Amino acid sequence: MRICVFCGSSMGYRDVYRKEAKKLAEYLAEQNIGLVYGGADVGLMKVLADTMLENNKEVIGIMPQNLVTKEVAHHNLTEMIIVDSMAERKDKMVELSDGFIAIPGGYGTFDELSEILTFNQLRITDKPLGILNVNGYFNHLLDFYQHAVKEGFVRQEHFNNLIVADNVETVFKRMEGYAPLTMGKWITDIKIESNTSS
Questions:
Q1: DSSP state, 86?
Q2: Exposure b/e, 99-138, CB count within 10 A at least 16 = b
Q3: What strands lie across the sheet with 34-37, from one edge to the other?
Q4: pLDDT tens-digit profile of 63-85?
Q5: What letter does residue 34 receive in the DSSP assignment?
Q6: Is 37 exposed, middle or buried (0-12, 13-18, 19+ CB in 10 A)?
Q7: What is the pLDDT, as a whole number, of residue 74?
Q8: Which CATH architecture has domain 2-196?
């Protein structure tokens, strides 16, 4: 089994982010779960990879060539897969992983998180995605998702199906119980809405 972790190439300003990234990697190692990640040797990505490698566990990095050229690649991984683009990187992450966890990060993390949420909504994938809400980092994003529900652009059932927890054990427990939503009802609903709006 492999879990793909989306996270920052920065450390963040609070030590709790580094500590929780290390704790996540230790949990993966204890459960003999392989890590798939962005392949960097910086930030929380480095913390995850180094902790896994210290425990002699599988770490697969996936990185576009232009970032390898910028010398941010980790050179001691179990496997480094070099791709041509960010889009190809995400496709490979989906292919190799059995599930996903987002921890604090920047634009890249937000992009990856959004892509898997969309893939799961459209049933392109049915793999669980957990949001590890370290130090309330994702609170404002979750508030915005709720705002999107109130404004009619995100379905309530899709918001309710988000997996969010503030500790590693709980996020994994909830991921184990993940059940994809059928598309029929909400597709019907948006067709009705579109035909009845003035």
A1: H
A2: bbbbbbbeebbeebbebbbebbbeeebebbbbbbbbeebb
A3: 79-83, 59-64, 34-37, 2-6, 99-102, 129-132, 163-165
A4: 999 888 877 899 999 999 999 99
A5: E
A6: buried
A7: 94
A8: 3-Layer(aba) Sandwich (3.40)
